[in-house]
Amino acid sequence: MKPFKNFKEFIKILIVAGLSLLIIVPFLSKSNISKTIHDIKNPIPIFSNDKKQSADEDLNNFILKEEPSWTGKYKLEMKELDHLGRAVQSHILLQKKNMPREAREPRLNYNPVGWHNYKFDGKWLMNRGHLVGYQFSGLNDEARNLVPETAYMNAGALSGMDDSNTSSMLFYENRLAAWLRMNPDKWLDYTVTPIYKDNELLPRQVQLNYVGFDKNGKVLPLRIGGNETMAENNTTQVTLENTSPNAIINYATGTAKQK
Question: Could you give the CA distance from residue 165 to residue 156 in angstroms, rounded to a whole number?
Fold first, then answer.
């Protein structure tokens, strides 16, 4: 290697080399740190596909993760219908005094998306099912709170009602209502979410999440029997199948045929 022509040239080269290292090394380090932070804040989703999912499609893999927050005030809220016109979720926080006193109107006029009905052996297959039941919400013909449900899942029987059937919403609704009546100073936090597969119009499942609060906002776990599990958000969770033992249901369209 030829010697440098003079000492000043040598110093210039050292300065340029030093500046390059000062620029490149922090950049590389910052890139790695930024990537690590991004990966922590945005983990790879459990459910993923090659195309980006829309907000509505993400509902198909819904998991209720937020812990209920006690406000000490009655609250009833429903998410807006999605892009297919499907009900998405209903939530209520109430005490016994907030329960409706008027009897429910026997007839509903609104047909939720995917609504069809059939009589098999003299028994109606489907109900216009309330997410949060009338006995809590006082809502009847509210589109955001209605989905097509089988009579079996909703009322516990192919005909009439059976609230001893742990595969039915009625089993849990009646026991939660009884808990409220026996504990007028307590609060019930109750969320109901229909679970759809892709763009199907009928939910394949309905998920219930509930927890109690005392008058000071202390969490009171509720165990009322049936097919209960504990959810990630510290509520009791029940997942019900929107099926009927006498029918084969096309969830994409809402049509059905007898078994």
Answer: 5
pLDDT in tens, 188-218: 999 999 999 999 999 999 999 999 999 999 9
Picking from 103, 84, 100, the residue whose alpha carbon sits closest to that of residue 92 is 100
55-258, CATH topology level: Extracellular Endonuclease; Chain A (3.40.570)
Q: What was the pLDDT predicted at 38? A: 39
Q: Domain segments of the chain: what residues? A: 1-43, 55-258
Residue for token pair 């808990």 = 179
